[in-house]
């Protein structure tokens, strides 16, 4: 099964992508992981991406598409995959369609995780990270530490990342609405989109997603 997962920042795409990929026994392909893997392995594409990121630039569509196409062509993805963070715009969506068509394949479903904008801001702006270990993450409302500002695990100081500040989150949402959200209508015209409310515990959102996938619901 070939699936695209889309939704605004803070919708829980990464969490759901990992869970769904495991349930369906298909690889979870994210652009962030692709960039890191290619940079770590020193591939030609990775060197180009690393140079661009080092200078603070945005990775061009053609590089992102090339990396995604290379990953989807690998043996473990021949039975399907779940794309997370790609495509990010209409141009990438059309390139994905063309790449799949060339391989005699097509998408089976597009899962649109829906979360109200105010909830997105609350989810992200409420996050607090541990300065000693970034894997220790808390939330002022949903998962507060026992002592304010102190990590329960190691006693490190908790802080709010600049990227998580409310004004920054709203800017990220504006970019999402302008660049990425239009792909939902693009895929809806192909009859591929299922919109799922992500206002629920993680296992329930996973259940809702599995329920709408063709052949599984």
From TrEMBL:
Residues given in the record as AMP binding sites: 31, 36, 57-59, 85-88, 92, 161, 172
Cited InterPro entries: Adenyl_kin_sub, Adenylat/UMP-CMP_kin, Adenylat_kinase_CS, Adenylate_kinase_lid-dom, P-loop_NTPase
Domains as described in the record: Consists of three domains, a large central CORE domain and two small peripheral domains, NMPbind and LID, which undergo movements during catalysis. The LID domain closes over the site of phosphoryl transfer upon ATP binding. Assembling and dissambling the active center during each catalytic cycle provides an effective means to prevent ATP hydrolysis.
Pathway terms, separated by semicolons: Purine metabolism; AMP biosynthesis via salvage pathway; AMP from ADP: step 1/1
One Gene Ontology molecular-function label: ATP binding
Domain Adenylate kinase active site lid: residue ranges: 127-163
Protein name per UniProt: Adenylate kinase
Family note: Belongs to the adenylate kinase family.
E.C. code: 2.7.4.3
Region (NMP) location: 30-59
Catalytic activity, reaction form: AMP + ATP = 2 ADP
NCBIfam families: adk, PRK00279.1-2, PRK00279.1-3, PRK14527.1
Location relative to the cell: Cytoplasm
GO biological process assignments: AMP salvage
Gene name of the record: adk
HAMAP family listed in its UniProt record: Adenylate_kinase_Adk
PROSITE patterns xrefs: ADENYLATE_KINASE (PS00113)
Stated role: Catalyzes the reversible transfer of the terminal phosphate group between ATP and AMP. Plays an important role in cellular energy homeostasis and in adenine nucleotide metabolism.
Chief subcellular location: cytoplasm
